Amino acid sequence: MVRSLWPCMLTYFWRVCPMLFPTFIIAQCCSDHLRGSPFFVDIEQIVSCFDKTTKLRFLNSDEPQYIKFGGARDNDPACNIRAGQLKLLGSDVAKFFEPSVECIVNAVLDQCRAANKPIVVGPFCFIGCAWL
Fold it and tell me: Domain segments of the chain: what residues?
């Protein structure tokens, strides 16, 4: 019985919490990007800093984004880390949000299809992310 509920619960979870997609994606990206670097052990801190700052301040996919997670002595040019900041391309950060946007659009379309009467959608407030 519990096993049969899991796919439904997971679907519901992603529909209710689409802002978690970027968090999981940045964690996977950092894991891949920092493998073999001394900063691999800082992934949890990097993801936490991304959630608290970069994710909320993201405005423009044409500008680089920075995740401040360490101090002035934390450097690894091969991993784009300088003075405790991980530099990411804005276009890459935008890709972190794509599954969230897709999830929200699909949920709205599903609701529109299921409605017996026309519904008005908006305005959207995406938990403080100015880019959206």
Answer: 2-114
